[in-house]
Amino acid sequence: MRVVFQGERGAFSEEACHKFLGKNIELAPCASFEEAFRRLERGEADRGVLPMENSLAGSVHDNFDLLLRHHMVILAETQVRIVHNLLVPPGVTFAKIRRVFSHPVALNQCRAFFRRHPKIAPVQFYDTAGSVKMLMEQRPEDAAAIAPAAAGGIYGAKILMRGLEDDKANFTRFFLLARTRRGWKAERAVKTSIVFTTPNKPGALFKCLAVLALRDINLVKIESHPLHGKPWEYLFYVDFMGRPTDERCRNALRHLGELTDMLRVLGSYEVVK
Length: 273
Known about the structure:
about 35% strand; 9 helices; alpha/beta; D-Maltodextrin-Binding Protein, domain 2; Alpha-Beta Plaits; 3 domains; ten-stranded mixed sheet; five-stranded mixed sheet
């Protein structure tokens, strides 16, 4: 099975790939989220693994927009504990470090480290594991990277410090995506994600949420995103517990369809521990 993800080998997304599908898979790293979606849509991969939300940084809005645009199906979700480590090429000591490369989200989650060491400057890079790969290729004597520990093993870097993140309760939520549900057991689904737009009039959103509340359906997330091309109008992304085939959920979605301008079920999926 070929699996696309954004970033280089050793990224947190790779850990999520193995958590979903085990070790016997072919990994296909992509330079961007959009490339991963395009390759999956074109049939160049069987599955895609994309980060959708971080417990500290919030949603990855680009991926929600791409999920809607490319009509992918959510098969499962999982969470990965985010542990940031300071990695260097062999021979580089902490005293030499003046720059630390990493993804901007990772740098932002290690602000206490940079406050304690004001002589070290954070430098944004496109990927956590990619920053380790770059250091091992270029071998600067004054630079380090913040990245997963797995990246050190893949590229031969040394871990100087572990657990740099400010908050240890740091998790990223990943989706396992495919073009269709074919070959995936629907009965394992426990959670559903939908997106909808409402008429621009008073009480519209309240009525939509009441459709779920009055049927005792547990809504676990709601978030609004700007609707492109329509300033100050919004898409509403909602997660709830249940499957569209359950009677109360089926009735709720039918009722919701009568109240919304657009409604789409993004997926009904299992939660992989």
